[in-house]
Design goal:
With 231 residues, this protein is of the alpha+beta class. It has eight helices and nine strands. The chain has helices at 2-39, 47-50, 103-106, 121-129, 154-157, 185-192, 198-202, 214-223, and strands spanning 55-64, 72-80, 94-100, 112-118, 132-133, 140-142, 161-167, 170-173, 179-183. Strands 1, 2, 3, 4, 5, 6, 7, 8 and 9 form a nine-stranded mixed sheet that branches. Strand 1 and strand 2 (72-80) form a beta hairpin.
Amino acid sequence: MNKIILGFAVLTLLALPAVGQEKEEDRVEKAGTVIKEIMDLPDDVPQDVIDRADCVVVLPSVLKFALGIGGSYGRGVMTCRGGTNFHGPWSAPTMMALEGGSFGLQLGGQATDFVLLLMSAKSASSILESKVKLGGDVSAAAGPVGRNVSAETDVSLRAEILSYSRARGLFAGISLAGSTLRPDNDANKKLYGKEVSAKDIVFGKAVPAPKSARVLLATLTKKSPKNTSKN
């Protein structure tokens, strides 16, 4: 009996890495579904804006966790254009974590999808290396939607990060100032099966993109194959 119990325990421990990998792959797949659905909307991210983005962060189903104070918590992925000047193809995804902030109150407790566009090399490098506070360490603003890129949106277009949300089918720009974004290196280890930093994934091509990232990368490549910024 003891041998049977011991054998079961060993099999369980051996299965844990695979279970963890499946969980992270599911997150990558969900991110691909979210970005495809958003990019298929009639009024989505303006083409001129996505074409100038160096990186894209997709956070599916972010949840409000603190009643009355609006804290939120989410997990997702980040992919960047390759090369030192961000003019290459979209990279393998690195796992990311969004925490804190008061935007949960604005969303009424609804599970919400977020898309963040990183508009500068500084914001991309900062987020890949450590935790950053949106609106503090890097400037952030609600992103313009559809064709509403006019003089009134010039301030938001100068932000280092533009943020969007989707809840109950409504897609709109939203401010995430006060929240923090960081690499989720534990999740990267589960997804890729080894210790690998977010920076090495995106800039060093340390690992190939998993199959679960197929829709994510194909959608971004179709929507914006070329970076039109002057980085």
